[in-house]
Structure formats: C-alpha cells, structure tokens
Amino acid sequence: MSFLRRNLVLILGLLVLVYMYIPNIVVAVMSFNDSSKARNLYRFQSFTLDNWLHPCSPDGMCKSVVTSIEIGLLATVVATLLGTLAAFALVRHSFAGRGPMNLVLFLPMASPEIVMGSSLLALFVATGFGGHLGFWTILIAHVMFCLSFVVVTVKSRLAGLDGNLEQAAMDLYATEWQTFWKVTFPLVFPGILSAALLSFSLSFDDFIITNLNAGQTVTFPMFVWGAAQRGVPMQVNVVGTLMFLIAIVVVVAGELGSRRRQKLLAMR
Length: 268
What we know:
Helices cover 76% and strands 0% of the residues. The chain has 2 domains: 1-30; 61-267, MetI-like fold (Orthogonal Bundle). Helix 4 (61-92) runs parallel beside helix 7 (135-159) and helix 7 (135-159) crosses helix 9 (176-205). By secondary structure, the protein is an all-alpha fold. The relative contact order is 0.14. The longest helix is centred in the last third of the chain and has 33 residues, at 235-267.
C-alpha cells in the first residue's frame, strides 16, 4: 500500500496515457488486417502486408492525402507567420483595441466548427467565390481557424519570457535586430514550433469546415468519410499509422535537440 501511495500520481498518469493511445494501437494493428473477406466489418480477419505494400490501391486515396498535406503545409506556414507577428504585437505593444483584439482572436477557438464553416461558406458566396470552392477556399478557411491556436500558443511562450535577458544583451551593445535573432527568437522558437505542429495536425484532421468549403476537392478526412459509406479500406489505417509515427519522431527529435542544447549551454 505504501508503494501505491508514493506512486499514485505516476500510476494514474500511465493509465491515462495507455487509455489515450489505445485508438492509435488499434489503428496500427488494423493496418495489417486483411479485410477482403468481410469488407464492411471493422474486425481483424488475418495478417497481411498488402496494405503497406500497396497503400494507394483504393482509387483517389493517395491523391487526397497529398491534397491534405499540401493544404496543411501552406496553412501552417501562413498561420504561423501571421499568428507569431500578432502574438508579438499583443504582448510587446500597447495600442487601441488591444483588449477586444484578444477576444476576437479567441472566438474561433470557442466557436463550434459548424458555425465557422457555415460562416466562411456564406462569406465566399457573398464575395462571389461560391462557384469556385476548392483548394484555395479550403486553404483560407484553415488559415482562419489555425491562426487563433498559433496566437494563443506563442503568446503563452512570450508571456513567460524573461525580459531581463534581452535587456542584458542590449546592455552589451547588441542592436535590437541582433537581440531578436540571438536571444528572443531562440527562446520563443519552441513555442512557434509547437504552434506550427498544432496547426498542421488541425488542418490535416479537419472535416467539418473543409466539407462545407471544399467544392469538388477531396481531402483525406473527406475520403475516409466517403469510403466509410461502403466500407473503410484498411489502407486508411496505414496512413494513420504513418502520421502517428512521424509525429512521434518529430517530438522525440525536438526533445533530444532541446536536451543537447541545454548540455552545450551547461558546458559553456
């Protein structure tokens, strides 16, 4: 009992992590499933490597994945750039309307996706883009809802930044530009990177807003939704497993890089 009392928080944390990762484990297992005999049953039938050897066998799936990646990368770059600039403005500068601006930027996070998606659709129709829904309208929509997450993430990083470090750099005759690139940006970069990764995952995963503003363009979530009407191909699980593994590699690489930088700083 004493062991449980000492390690209760650790045990509960591990149980929560296991519970959270059960869906990912199921997806990874199902990526090796041969469902050709019972296509409409999401049940493990027999082991096969065909899903990994032929991931593009369902017509249109790989094209939808490429479309989602392209939109996700573009939306991430634009939202991260604009959101970082907005975060610096809101944290470092005082201007008229600063309080209402914080509220306006937070609203997309608090609004249901169906509300934002339908609002964007109404905007596109009102501005004459109703007949041209597709790749670019999806991109604009994704930038809109990713922007709020970027601003909030970078703002939290800036709020915890010690301003004395920048003052010390300028006391040592560094210019404002040198101080930004040598001191401020390296300290804020983890927050910017986190915001970018969050933006890409939100963009790649979105269905509701995308479905309302996609026109004839099919992203990966829309392909999965359409395929589910006939039976989900197991190759979908291959894509899900690959995205999960890539996310783990990125996070682990970032953590290892952070520890390496800390060791180098300690050695100095």
